[in-house]
Design goal:
By secondary structure, the chain is of the alpha/beta class. The protein has twelve helices and 13 strands. It has a single domain, classed as NAD(P)-binding Rossmann-like Domain (Rossmann fold, 3-Layer(aba) Sandwich). Helix 4 links the parallel strand 5 and strand 6. Helix 2 runs parallel beside helix 3 and helix 5 crosses helix 11. The model has no long low-confidence stretch (mean pLDDT about 95).
Length: about 325
């Protein structure tokens, strides 16, 4: 099977590349940058906003895992045009190409609980997937990833919690928690995410979105018959931000200082996140392989080895 992975040079995408290649699939990476983490697969340099380049890459594949785009939370508040253009129009280009050529598409999304351009763009992209299924019988699976962590996650440009906390602690600086720390997250190791996506592709016809005849159930555009078909991929366990720092401190095995700061723009204190794994487990049989402490210790080891790159802004 030939699998095209957009954003395949990035954090989640590169792990998907490794997982699909290890499973014996032919992998094509479509990204705007050269490979950073893995040499597996055939790498194509291209932009999501170039419909001809997207179309050409899609024709070479049987399935597309769409992991490309711009991410961030507070970082995106002052750059909404760029985020919406890349994430929404980029997804539209992928949807149009996969629909035109009859290819299967796995659209990677996230829990959309905050009002920032990134979350809004992901919500919009999901609804475009619903529309293409209903109007054009597109072959699409929608997957919401929860709080993914692990080796290769960016430290410098987007302040993701786990790599930021690790690098700061290793440099004897305080770990910063934005808000009260009572919000919950659902931490899942990136290799488990890649395995989960592989399991979904291998059960594509079972997992794909089906047409529904529904209108929004309220004036706020909730589409329950569509939403209930989305696959959620996390650990299925919630942990507070404070508890996450405590677990990480144990994995670091060094004293850490914690500093509380006001919430950042585009984020809301007290958010409760926990994946419902019922559907993905029932349809694919997928089970997690890496427990939290094992994953955190491995991730700490990765950033210990990469501290110089983090300091130079390369990581």
């Amino acid at each position: 099977m030939k699998v095209l992975i957009t954003g395949g040079s990035g954090f989640i995408g590169s792990h998907c590349v490794d997982a699909f290649a290890a499973a014996g699939h032919d992998v094509i990476v479509f990204d705007c940058v050269a490979p950073l983490h893995t040499k597996a697969g055939d790498h194509v340099i291209g932009e999501l906003l170039d419909p001809a380049a997207v179309d050409k890459a899609v024709t070479r594949s049987d399935f597309v895992v769409h992991a490309g785009g711009l991410l961030g939370t507070h970082e995106t508040v002052l750059m909404p045009e760029e985020v919406v253009r890349t994430n929404v129009l980029g997804t539209l280009n992928v949807l149009q190409a996969t629909t035109r050529h009859g290819r299967g598409l796995i659209n990677i999304s996230k829990p959309n609980v905050w009002l920032n351009p990134y979350s809004i763009s992901k919500d919009t992209s999901e609804k475009l997937c619903f529309m293409y299924v209903d109007e054009f019988d597109a072959r699409v699976i929608a997957v919401k990833l929860y709080n993914v962590y692990g080796p290769r996650q960016k430290y410098s440009r987007v302040r993701k919690a786990i790599p930021t906390w690790i690098v700061e602690a290793l440099n004897c600086r305080p770990i910063e928690i934005f808000g009260s720390g009572v919000a919950t997250v659902d931490l899942i190791h990136v290799r488990d995410v890649a395995r989960g996506i592989l399991a979904i592709v291998e059960k594509f016809e079972t997992c794909r979105l089906r047409r529904t005849v529904e209108i929004a159930n309220d004036v706020y555009c909730g589409f329950p018959k569509h939403n209930e078909q989305i696959l959620e991929l996390g650990s299925g366990k919630s942990i507070t931000v404070k508890e996450s720092v405590e677990a990480l401190a144990s994995a670091l095995d060094i004293p850490v200082e914690v500093r509380h700061l006001p919430m950042r723009r585009g984020e809301i204190d007290g958010t409760r996140l926990c994946a419902d794994m019922t559907r993905i487990t029932a349809l694919t049989g997928f089970r997690l392989d890496i427990d939290l402490m094992e994953g955190l210790r491995e991730t700490v080891g990765y950033y210990k080895a990469k501290l110089a790159e983090a300091a130079d802004g390369v990581l």
